[in-house]
Amino acid sequence: MYYFIFFPALGATIGWVTNYLAIKFLFRPHRPWRIGPLVIQGVIPRRRKDLAAAVGQVVATELLPRDQVAAALNAPEIRRNIAEAAGETVSRRIADYPILRPFPRTLRELLARQAAGTVSREVSTLLLDQGPDLIGRVLSDVDLAQLVQKELDAMDWDYMEKIVYAVAGKELKLIEVMGGVLGGLVGLVQAAATVFLGG
Known about the structure:
Layout: H1 3-27, E1 33-35, E2 38-40, H2 43-46, H3 48-63, H4 66-73, H5 76-95, H6 105-140, H7 144-153, H8 157-198
Antiparallel strand pairs: 1-2
Helix pairs in contact: 1-8, 3-7, 4-6, 5-6
């Protein structure tokens, strides 16, 4: 009967510790540890550049492909917001323009409103007529994959580790527990085999 306590307990301990260390070795150690010719480093820090490049490529081609981004930016509400923002910017600039300060405030405000309305209408018309082409030209100069890759590669990996544990902490803990459970089952089988084959 001793076998049915010792082997499952030993198997559960080994299974849990193995999975615990495997999860920790995803991120740690952050910097390489050199023991003679052996180099030990967390999987993600060691492959961070490859990981950042892969995520950048997925974002640019699968999650935010250029045509979908262009369609979203060309939506009516976006065009309206851009036109209004352009008009408001022109209005503020004209109202505060040094050359116009000697003129009465009411005149400056009237000029600002007129200019803002004209700019808003022109920008709205331009975006309606040429929006897809303009957006396409702008996006052609933006390498989204490269931007994402650069941001991820520069990310603080302590922060990244905290995010992963915050999002998937329960699942990672379950993996540890399952390692113990499976190790315990293997130990139980070993105990049974030892007793029945040995007996």
